[in-house]
Amino acid sequence: MDLELIIFIIIMCWAIFYWIVYIIFGQVLVRKLRKNPITKKSLGLEFVSGWDILNVAFSLSYPVWMREVAKKSPLSFLEADYDAIYPYTTRFDRVLAKIIYCMTGAPVLFELGFLIFETITGKSRFSLLMTKDKIHDFKKIKKDKKEHD
Fold first, then answer.
1. Three-state DSSP state, 109
2. E strands along 1-149, which residues?
3. Is 43 in contact with 35 (CB distance < 8 Å)?
C-alpha cells in the first residue's frame, strides 16, 4: 500500500467513527433535551439543522475558564447554557460530548501542524505524498501550462 491510500483509510475511519458518535449523541441526549421544556430554550442558536448538537457537546466539554468567558460575552446566546443542561446529562453523555469536542478540533490541530512543518522545512506537505514520478509529472504539467499561457 502506498502512503496516500493509508492516509485516506485513516481519514475515512476517523470520519465514520465521528459521525457515528455524533448521531448517537444527537439521538440520545440532544433529542431528550429538546423535548424537555426547561432545557429547550437553553440549547443555543441553531444556524443549521444539527448545530445544537455541537452547541451542547462543546458546552459540556469546555474548560471552566472558557465557560465563564462565554457567559460574560454579549454573544452568549449562541452557546448552549451549561448550567441549565448539565443536570439532565449522564456521565455517558459527557464522555460522548468530549469525544465530539476532541474530534472536531483534531483537523484544526493537524492543519496547524502542517503549516508549522511547511514553515520550518520549506517543503510542501503535498510533495511528501508524491513519488518522484508524480513530482516529475506535476512539474511537466506546470511547465506545459506556462507555455500554453
1. helix
2. none
3. no
